[in-house]
Write a structure and sequence with these properties.
The chain is mostly helical and 275 residues long. Helix content is 69%, strand content 2%. Strand 1 and strand 2 form a beta hairpin. Helix 3 packs antiparallel against helix 4. The chain is elongated and about 70 Å long. InterPro entries: TPR-like_helical_dom_sf, TPR_rpt. This is Tetratricopeptide repeat protein.
Length: 275
């Protein structure tokens, strides 16, 4: 969540914590904003008894609590469940809600495992890499039902490898890319495997990794150059530039600049991991 939200109703003393995006919700306006902008995350981890209790105990909305609690027992769809929440503060017009409900119905029409992958992809796109990995692992763990094809599983392994890469856990990333390649070969995944497996290593390591996945010497060289370009870009990132500049300074100026740069990098880490 970002930007400003005008809140006119009661503010909770204890927030409702949404783990998927590491966000505290204090008001009905914030809750409606979240529901409206994160439809791919609307499942039992959000729409549950805990949310109902929070609405009653923190916001004092007894009638809304009773209505939502009945809906939980009836196991209604996500669209049906969230409608009374929006109506409570007239957050959406009927036209806006119909559009939202249409998107929810389209999502709910997908098989459960597909919905889980979409959820993981959405978390990835929003920088929530640790939570995305958890969703991908859960999806792969349910593959034993036989409802998940090899191509689909390969996509999940690849995406999970990308999430580990963003966290600089390159050994885990390489293993995910390797698992993906065993299910479905692709040039994109071979390149990703080479980069994750050989980052910071010598040319012999690149040759060995290329041989393992039957990549050509040309593929290995292209992957190595891509890694070099990525490393150059990383050094130009705002936080890294500020830290480098700080190290060129001295005394109090050094301390102040380094502190600001580290705070920026730390904030980015917390955003991506939820810790």
């Amino acid at each position: 969540m970002s930007g400003y939200i005008l809140c006119q109703g009661k503010r909770a003393r204890i927030p409702y914590y949404i783990e998927n995006i590491s966000t505290n919700i204090y008001t009905m306006e914030e809750l409606c904003y979240y529901l409206n902008h994160n439809i791919y995350l609307l499942d039992e981890t959000i729409l549950n008894e805990g949310l109902c209790r929070w609405i009653l105990e923190e916001l004092g909305l007894r009638k809304l609590y009773d209505k939502l609690y009945r809906m939980l027992d009836e196991k209604v769809s996500a669209g049906t469940f969230i409608l009374p929440i929006f109506k409570e503060i007239s957050y959406l017009s009927m036209e806006e809600f119909r559009e939202l409900n249409g998107r929810l119905q389209q999502l709910e029409g997908q098989p459960p495992l597909v919905r889980q992958k979409i959820k993981g992809d959405y978390l990835m796109e929003n920088g929530k890499y640790v939570n995305a990995i958890r969703v991908y692992q859960k999806t792969l763990g349910e593959r034993g039902s036989g409802k998940l094809g090899q191509q689909f599983a390969a996509m999940i392994w690849y995406n999970m490898g990308c999430a580990y890469s963003r966290l600089f856990q390159l050994e885990e990333a390489a293993d995910c890319f390797w698992q993906s390649l065993k299910l479905q070969d692709s040039e994109k995944c071979r390149r990703a495997y080479l980069i994750a497996a050989c980052c910071g290593k010598d040319r012999d390591s690149w040759a060995a990794a290329a041989a393992r996945i039957q990549a050509s010497p040309q593929e290995a060289e292209e992957a190595r150059r891509e890694l070099e370009r990525a490393q150059e870009q990383e050094l130009k990132a705002p936080g890294a530039l500020r830290l480098a500049k700080a190290l060129e300074s001295s005394g109090e100026e050094l301390w102040g600049q380094a502190q600001a740069a580290l705070e920026e990098l730390t904030a980015e880490y917390h955003k991506n991991t939820g810790y």
